[in-house]
Amino acid sequence: MPLALKKRLPEYEFYREFNNTARSFKTLLCFSLNRENKTLWDLWGYTYNDPCQSHAESIVLKEIERFFKENHPDTVQKYKLTLYMSFSPCYKCCESLANFLKSEERIDLHIKASKLYFSQNSSNQKGLQQLKHQGVSIKVMDKEDFQDCFYLFVNELKQFEGWPDLDKMSVEYSAALEAILNQCETNTDLGNVSADIAALESSPLHADPTGHFDNLTPDNNNRDRPSESETPQKCSIKDGCVGSSKGVKRKLSFED
C-alpha cells in the first residue's frame, strides 16, 4: 500500500497536492496519533489513495488498528488523531471514519482539509454532517494550518511559502463547509458555492492520456484513479525527535 510511516513528505508533493487553488487527481493525507496530553506522536506518516483499491482514510485506519493490536495500549487511554488532507472525505470514507470511531471511542478525531471533495454532492454533505454529529472536529485549512502541516511533515528548517489566492480560497471553502455542517440544524438550502469552487470542481483533474477522468462527475466519487501511483521518497535524517514551536514531538525513523 502507498503508506509512508515516519517519513518526510517531499516538498514538491506537498505544494502540488495541498494547493487549494488547483485541482488534484488524488488524495494526500498526513496523519499523527498521540496520547492525550502527550506531545510525542506514537504513530505518524502520510499516504495517498491506492488506485482502484483503498482510499487514503481506509489505509490510515487499518494502520492504526494494527498499531493498537500490536502494542496493546490501555483501552482507557485517550488518543488524538489528526488528519491533514488535500481533500475532505467522500461519503464512503465518512462512513468508514464514523464506524471506526464507534469501535474506538478512545480516539478524538480532528480533520483539516485543504479542499472540499465535490461539495455539492448530497451524499458527501451528509457524510460530513454525520462526522460532526459524532463530535469530529472538521475545518478547512487556513494559512496557519498549511504552515503547521509543512513544518510537521515536510521540513521544519524551511519557511512555508504561500501561493496566490490561498487566503481567498480558504475563506470560500470555509464558508461552504460551514453551510454544509449547519444545514441539518438550520434546515435551509445550501444555495450555490462560490464561482471559484464551482470552477475547480468542474475542471479537468489533470491531463490523463488514458481518459479515465472524461466522465467524472460529483456523484462518481471516483478519486481513486490517478494516472499512476507514486512511491514516496525517503530522506536521510538521523533518528531522533523533532519538536515544533507548539511543543509537538514525533519519533523519527528515516532511512536512506
Automatic annotation (TrEMBL):
InterPro entries: APOBEC/CMP_deaminase_Zn-bd, APOBEC_Cyt_Deaminase, Cytidine_deaminase-like. PROSITE patterns: CYT_DCMP_DEAMINASES_1. One of its GO terms (biological process) is cytidine to uridine editing. Residues 247-256 have a biased composition (Basic residues). Residues 208-256 are annotated as: Disordered. Pfam families: APOBEC2. Keywords: Hydrolase, Metal-binding. The keyword Metal-binding applies. GO terms for cellular component: cytoplasm; nucleus. It comes from the Eukaryota. One of its GO terms (molecular function) is zinc ion binding. PANTHER family: MRNA EDITING ENZYME, SINGLE-STRANDED DNA CYTOSINE DEAMINASE-LIKE. This is DNA dC->dU-editing enzyme APOBEC-3-like. The gene is Apobec3.
